[in-house]
Amino acid sequence: MTVIAIDGPSGVGKSSVSKAVAAHLGYAYLDTGAMYRAMGWLCTTRGITDVGDVVELVRGAHLEISTDPSVPTVAVDGIDVTEEIRSAEVSASVQVVSAVPEARSELIEMQRQIIAAAEPGIVVEGRDITTVVAPGAPVRILMTADDEVRVVRRAKETHGNASAEAVAATRDVTLGRDAKDAKTTSFLTAADGVHTLDTTHIDFDQSVGAVLALVTAAQKA
């Protein structure tokens, strides 16, 4: 079973590239960020912010996440939240969960169980995949891009356009979340053995091709 671990900040293309690579290889796909978003949605829905309550909520919640790259659905306690977790409100609340070490540990254990059960392989993307979740993965990649490029990409994804208003509305959320997450996770600097893939000046197809080339190289090694 092959694990492809991909880290990186918002707007570098992790999700779209990871799904495309998984589909091409016939592998499973795991969006770990969606798991944190789902728990953030649950905390927001129930008005929970206390650290102890957050941990208990994460431990007690029934989280279901699809590993099919063509149908990346997420459900919490039987409720489909695939669309809801992409809202600006949820994006702003993810740190309620991700900043709590005990909550992260619960989700990381779940992620490792999903990875262990995947056949013939899996592409896992998120924030600390190459260093914490799957440090032994044969293919470990840190995707990066210039800040402004990332903000524009996220604006297009969130608002459907890159107008001045959309970019302005996206900048603080995107860069602010990265700054907060960097306090508890490692995803801005490549660890030893992790390949850095800068997507600033390459398009989607080139990004997918670069990842596939690294997978091929690892398989031949």
UniProtKB/TrEMBL annotation:
Looking up SUPFAM superfamilies in the UniProt record yields: P-loop containing nucleoside triphosphate hydrolases (SSF52540)
Residues binding ATP, per UniProt = 8-16
Tell me its EC number(s), please: 2.7.4.25
Q: Where in the cell is it found?
A: Cytoplasm
One annotated GO molecular function: ATP binding
Cytidylate kinase domain: which residues?
4-215
Q: Which InterPro entries match?
A: Cytidylate_kin (IPR003136), Cytidylate_kinase_dom (IPR011994), P-loop_NTPase (IPR027417)
The record's listing under Pfam families reads: Cytidylate_kin (PF02224)
- Which domain of life does the protein's organism represent? Bacteria
| GO terms, biological process | pyrimidine nucleotide metabolic process
> What protein family does this chain belong to?
Belongs to the cytidylate kinase family. Type 1 subfamily.
Q: What is this protein called?
A: Cytidylate kinase
Q: What organism, scientifically named, is this protein from?
A: Brevibacterium luteolum
